Amino acid sequence: MFCPKCGNEMPNGMTRCPNCGEIIEPRQSGGYYNDNRPEKPNNYLVWSILVTLFCCLPCGIVAIVYSASVDSAYYAGDYARAFSASKKAYTWMLVSLISGIVIYLATVLFYTVLGGAALMSSEALYDL
Ligand SMILES: [Zn+2]
Prior knowledge:
The chain is an all-alpha fold.
């Protein structure tokens, strides 16, 4: 391959031209990334927004940030980063979903116990 800046011939897979110091993008050299564009990884954006609204706000926001970076990394040609962001978005979406369910169950349990206690105390009043 040849340096796009100065035309100096350089070994394949090299990321920096030894002649002029120009940084060569790995995907242009074909050394690190496949030339075939892989399918865009799922960004889970809809799910991330849903869990942010209905489950756990802080975890959901982390999921949205990763979701957004899936698309930007993919269109920048950084497929490795797009796939890792996709995995992280999925993980945080799940974390948010699970903590949302746990919080929901804890709330239901709390009011059930509270309601049960209120019912018992009112029955206790009837006994008087
Ligand atoms: Zn050069």
